[in-house]
């Protein structure tokens, strides 16, 4: 599902984003600002948020019945309202199985600080 989400974001595919994100989705980025599902879809379809590439690494998924918690590292190249998105981040995503389909209910990114 996460690969599908990545492709939907890169291609600003509103129909796919609508299927993937839960109605009550909330996403929080390194700035601490939250975005709802309608805001995220609008940001992609308007071109305000545009990714050229997104890769993930060190991905781990833990299942708890109808809930999955996904963590890992992400490298993103893109622009958010004209500013470069943070390139190297750590993420936590929460997926819930609703009506037989996994949907993203929460997404949080934080800046990845190089190890010293």
Description:
- Helices cover about 20% and strands about 55% of the residues.
- It is α+β, with helices and mostly antiparallel strands and about 120 residues long.
- Strands 1, 2, 3, 4, 5, 6 and 7 form a 7-stranded mixed beta sheet that branches.
- Strand 3 (about 50-65) and strand 4 form a beta hairpin.
- The longest helix is centred in the middle third of the chain and has 10 residues, at about 35-45.
- The radius of gyration is 14 Å and the shape is globular.
- The model has no long low-confidence stretch (mean pLDDT about 95).
Any key phrases for this structure?
alpha+beta; 3 helices
Strand content: over 45%
Q: How far apart, in Å, are the first and last alpha carbons?
A: 34 Å
Mean of all residue-level pLDDT scores: 93
The residue fraction in helices comes out at 10-25%
Q: List low-pLDDT spans.
A: none
What Rg do the Cα atoms give?
14 Å
The tally of helices reads 3
| Number of DSSP E strands | 7
């Amino acid at each position: 599902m996460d690969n599908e989400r990545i492709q939907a974001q890169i291609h600003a595919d509103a129909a796919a984003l609508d299927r993937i994100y839960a109605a009550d989705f909330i996403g929080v980025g390194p700035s601490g600002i939250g975005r709802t599902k309608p805001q995220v879809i609008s940001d992609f379809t308007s071109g305000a948020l545009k990714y050229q590439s997104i890769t993930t690494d060190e991905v781990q998924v833990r299942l708890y019945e109808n809930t999955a918690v996904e963590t890992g590292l992400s490298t993103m190249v893109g622009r958010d309202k004209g500013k470069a998105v943070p390139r190297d981040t750590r993420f936590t995503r929460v997926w819930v199985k609703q009506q037989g389909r996994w949907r993203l209910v929460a997404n949080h990114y934080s800046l990845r600080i190089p190890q010293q």
